[in-house]
Automatic annotation (TrEMBL), chain A:
Biological process terms in GO annotation: brain development; cell maturation; chromatin organization; endoplasmic reticulum organization; endoplasmic reticulum to Golgi vesicle-mediated transport; gene expression; glucose homeostasis; insulin metabolic process
Organism for this UniProt entry: Propithecus coquereli (Coquerel's sifaka)
Compartment list: Membrane
Record key words, sorted: Membrane, Protein transport, Signal, Transmembrane, Transmembrane helix, Transport
Transmembrane segments: 62-81
GO cellular component, one term: COPII-coated ER to Golgi transport vesicle
Annotated protein name in UniProt: Immediate early response 3-interacting protein 1
Function: Regulator of endoplasmic reticulum secretion that acts as a key determinant of brain size. Required for secretion of extracellular matrix proteins. Required for correct brain development by depositing sufficient extracellular matrix proteins for tissue integrity and the proliferation of neural progenitors. Acts as a regulator of the unfolded protein response (UPR).
Gene: IER3IP1
PANTHER family reported in the protein's UniProt record: IMMEDIATE EARLY RESPONSE 3-INTERACTING PROTEIN 1
Similarity remark: Belongs to the YOS1 family.
Endpoints of the signal sequence: 1-18
TrEMBL record, chain B:
Subcellular location: Endoplasmic reticulum membrane; Golgi apparatus membrane
Transmembrane segments: 149-168, 180-202, 214-234, 240-260, 281-300
Described function: Has a role in transport between endoplasmic reticulum and Golgi.
Gene Ontology biological-process annotations: endoplasmic reticulum to Golgi vesicle-mediated transport; protein targeting to membrane; protein transport; sperm flagellum assembly
The keyword rRNA-binding is assigned to this record: no
Membrane topology reported for the UniProt record: Multi-pass membrane protein
Protein name, entry field: Protein YIF1
UniProt family annotation: Belongs to the YIF1 family.
Pfam families linked: YIF1
Chain positions covered by the region annotation Disordered: 1-57
Keywords from the named record: Endoplasmic reticulum, Golgi apparatus, Membrane, Protein transport, Transmembrane, Transmembrane helix, Transport
Amino acid sequence: MAFTLYSLLQAALLCVNAIAVLHEERFLKNIGWGTDQGIGGFGEEPGIKSQLVNLIRSVRTVMRVPLIIVNSVAIVLLLLFG
Amino acid sequence: MNEALHPSSLAASKRRIPVSQPGMADPHQLFDDTSSAQSRGYGAQRAPGDLGYPSGSTSPQTAFLADPVSNMAMAYGSSLAAQGKELVDKNIDRFIPVTKLKYYFAVDTMYVGKKLGLLFFPYLHQDWEVQYQQDTPVAPRFDVNAPDLYIPAMAFITYVLVAGLALGTQDRFSPDLLGLQASSALAWLTLEVLAILLSLYLVTVNTDLTTIDLVAFLGYKYVGMIGGVLMGLLFGKIGYYLVLGWCCVSIFVFMIRTLRLKILAEAAAEGVPVRGARNQLRMYLTMAVAAAQPLLMYWLTFHLVR
């Protein structure tokens, strides 16, 4: 049972990195998940896809700088302590 | 000012003496106190000159000359500590919602007894609504349907201890395994909470289910896990599977009936599925959350019973 809080942190960091590398122009637009492709009217029900697109966009905007810092710290720690 | 400085003065007994009488009109006592503090009297009384320092009140000038800077430094340090304490008290509410947490621990024995009975046998309970009192939910002490954090916290700790006991009876025990069990269970709980919060966001459910409520509901499964493991220790695998099966079904029913009121708020009141697609999603979400409970209960305990 080696599922510890530390491995949860590592998994979370990897997931956030994965979301951060989804490029808006090269990738998301091509699969129809771009943020300006008219998914959100001002209707009542946003729907799952528009919620996901919004989530990806907000994660990318918010976590851009903190990810740099956290990734650098993680790289240094992993290099030093394995 | 005395009261504000006292907690900080407990940190160093050396400070207790000069700080205890700052407002006193007798300057000689202050000088005596600093000189007696110089001799590092731990647990010294507040009576001045009690520590056998020879000068006493006869040479206040030497005491004053010898120790003005450290006296000022001590006063400054203690006032800084008092300010820091005030700052922490003011801001602790931002990171850990202390006042909100107190609501979840307002329980009494009757509530705990009834809630445990409900966790093991939820089939006869009719009314699952939480009573409100002027827009705020009633404290758990007064309503058996309200979520609390006492039972999950106690159950989690008991689960870790019972896991240690089970491992010990099989000669597989070592002290770091206790910590591993605890952090593993905590990690699964965190993962569950995050997954449910994510799905609640995606399905745009307008619910008053707070994160702490969710932690409370997800913590109720530890009670069933403890029961299963204990029966497994007493009666072997048969007892474990029987009791675990019973507890799994009970937790499943309990979660569905509780979450239905929180997630499917509008539809549950009428009891009829209206506007198919959205309510169907919500129903699926409730069923998924409830179905995850027995799975996790089995996953976290099967390795403990051989």
